[in-house]
Amino acid sequence: MFWNKETETLKGDKLEKLQIKRLKWTIKQAENIPFYKKLLNESKINAIDIQNVKDIQKLPFTKKTDLQGGYPFGFLAVQKKEIVRIHTTSGTTGKPTVVGYTKQDIENWSELIARNMTMVGLTADDTFQNAVNYGLFTGGLGFHYGAEKIGMTVIPSGTGNTKRQIEMIDDFGVTAIHCTPSYAMHLAEVAETMNTKLKTLKTGMFGAEPWSDNMRKNLESKLDLKAYDSYGMSEMYGPGAAFECQERTGLHFWHDSYLIEIIDPDTGEVLEPGQKGELVVTPLVKEAMPLLRYRTGDITMILEDECPCGRGPKIARLTGRSDDMLVIRGINVFPSQIEHVLRAIPEVGEQFMVYVDRENHLDEMTIEVEIKREFFKGELSDLEKIQKKIIHSLKEILNVRTKVSLVEPESLPRFEGKAKRVIDKRGDKL
Ligand code: DLL
Domain range for residue 341? Predict the structure, then answer.
């Protein structure tokens, strides 16, 4: 099933013409942003230099740290009054990355979500429970608007209160659900204890964090549904950039809305289809916040085989990152953010270590923090106060609950080279 068959199956010259036209428009739009105006001037490139899609390689890359420099509105290409919505995602330090949307952006984004959901067979006859956060996280409102566009019955359940979520699935006859794969696993387990089989569910759309094929098998057998992988990032609107079709042999990237490349993360060299590297995305229709060759940090490859569904290119499922970003219960966390928070607390000593593990299918992050000697000697209740302060400050910036344990000064490992402060034990538990 198609939402927009003509665009979704566009190929050859017709597609390239559209992509070039939109790429030229995007470059012009980016020139409204002082950062890009300077960068394009320095590299002596403008829209006229783009003759074919490969000419994109003449453009400079954009990194997440560049966006940081523009906080809060330095990357908006339109007047503030044209912005109808703001979402944010984690930045690499204390301040988040801000993403603005015009009315047209919201329309474009909803269309992409509508395409994705139609692609996996959902229609106005479906009842859809959106069990992700409805705040600044793009997963909530993003899916909501797309599902309403199709005309589905939408239940904006958000996260939490798992028993109530399960009752709603049963009572409202929910047929499709969207959440993070780890929350889906939690739902399945709670449903088991409630002795319900969630019989009406037939489609699960899971994303925002890596999940393995084994986890898919597990979810499908526990929830008795067909599970699809959904990829996106706030800088690309949010979810919806790439999604699995019913073949489930990779995720279709919407070729009319994004140009994708894979590069070697160390050298920046552009790699061939079939070679694994860092995904670089140039959105082609973003009005409020156009980006040129944005380095996502996500590792994947372009899959060239024609898909029987007739749509365009796909990428392999995402398993890793080229940087040290962690995804904890669907929320992005950079170790540099943790460092930023800890360094601002006077009682905190020199070193810290971050441990990430999965307990009952949910991510848990524990941070061991060295405390300065003069504070370590104090009363237990003083130490508890410090611990609470650290937990609170981390929650404020990371938006994630963490466990904190205070340790003596000089008790954590020291590193001669690059510090390895994160130990992620989830690898084999995905
Ligand atoms: O996570 C948008 C989203 C919401 C996608 C709901 C899918 C479903 P951010 O919070 O900006 O946006 O995080 C983007 O999350 O660069 C990846 O590292 C990771 N990520 C997102 N989807 C997947 C996935 C949303 N399907 C970052 N598999 C990305 C693996 C994923 N990692």
Answer: 328-429
* pLDDT more than 70, % of the chain: 99
Number of folded domains that form the chain: 2
298 lines ligand 1 (CB under 6 A): yes
Domain end residue (candidates: 280, 304, 323): 323
Ligand 1 within 6 A of 8 CB?
no
333 alpha carbon to ligand 1 midpoint, in Å?
Answer: 12
Determine the atom of ligand 1 nearest the C-alpha atom of 319. 30
Mean pLDDT score of the chain: 94
Ligand 1 centre and the CA of 370: distance in Å? 32
| Residue 132 CA, closest ligand 1 atom number | 6
pLDDT, mean of residues 146-169: 97
- Asked whether the beta carbons of 79 and 33 are under 8 A apart, the reply is no
CA-proximal residue: ligand 1, atom 15 (nearest) = 208
C-beta of residue 177 within 8 angstroms of C-beta of residue 139: no
* C-alpha 40 to ligand 1 mean position (Å): 29
164 and 243 housed in the same domain: yes
Residues 276, 344 within the same domain: no
CA distance 181 to 97: 24
| Domain end (from 323, 338, 365) | 323
Is residue 229 in contact with ligand 1, taking CB distance under 6 Å?
yes
**309 and 388 fall within a common domain:** no
- Reply yes or no on whether the pLDDT at 122 is more than 70: yes
Are 215 and 188 in contact by the 8 Å Cβ rule? The answer is no
Rounded to the nearest whole angstrom, what is the distance from the C-alpha of residue 233 to the centroid of ligand 1?
5
Q: Which of 261, 260, 257 is nearest to 287 (CA)?
A: 257
CATH number at residue 183: 3.40.50.12780
Q: Please say whether the beta carbons of 65 and 92 come within 8 A.
A: yes
pTM given for the model:
0.92
